[in-house]
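User: I'm putting together notes for a lab meeting next week and I want to include a structural view of one of the chains we've been expressing. I don't have a solved structure, so I'd like a prediction I can at least talk through. The sequence is below, exactly as it appears in our construct file.
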Amino acid sequence: MGRLDGKVALVTGASRGIGRAIALRLAADGARVGVHYATARDAAAAVRAEIEAAGGEAFLLRADLSALTGIEGLVDDLRIALDGRLLDILVNNAGIGASGTIADTDEAGFDALFALDVKAPFFLTQQLLPLLADGGRIINISSVVSMAAYPTTIAYAAAKAALNSMTVSLAVGLGPRGISVNAVAPGATATDFLGPMLDDPAVVGMLEKASVFGRLGQPGDIAGLVAFLAGPEAGWVTGQLIAASGGMHL
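Assistant: Thanks for the context. Below is the predicted structure for the 250-residue chain, given as structure tokens.
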């Protein structure tokens, strides 16, 4: 028996990286998982196939979450996939990153960043509240950059800080329904999110030294914490921002 047997989860941005690892882990724990993607259908289908090959259940959902019309379309498709039951676990993982100082950041880049990293989880959560089961779980994927000074990624850090604030307010607002709301803040994690930095030994070495464990995080490190927060053991944990960073900034 899996600890999430009978539960239904939605993981946004689940076709790659941390989102993929979360989808695989929740499915391994027994949840039926909605694998959301924006454009990478083949990658999302591969995640679904891997889940099903291991004996789990998954379904695909495509949507551009940067626009309200896309969010509303995703909710409609999810309602059909739920077939009369409710959603138990929402993982707001989809997002984009951006580097740049305040002088380097233009309006278009700023707006695109906040559309996907702030507006999308805000309005997706809003639209899903009628479908979310009492006693459910919402887990927002933040970043350790929201917890310290990062002047070279200032807009991204600000967006994730906004997500942290939203997490706390939602935790209070949804408490009467028994819904817990938490945020997980990964540190440097070995996914394509880091892009060409992973090809630079000097940068990789610097990131490894930032952790007390002397290594980069792996997607599974984040997925394990998300799985804990999604499960029955974490029912008394809400409104928390938990760094999953290997001890960065200690």
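A couple of points you could mention at the meeting. Residues 8-244 form a domain with the Rossmann fold fold (CATH 3.40.50.720). The mean pLDDT is 96.

User: Perfect, that's what I needed.
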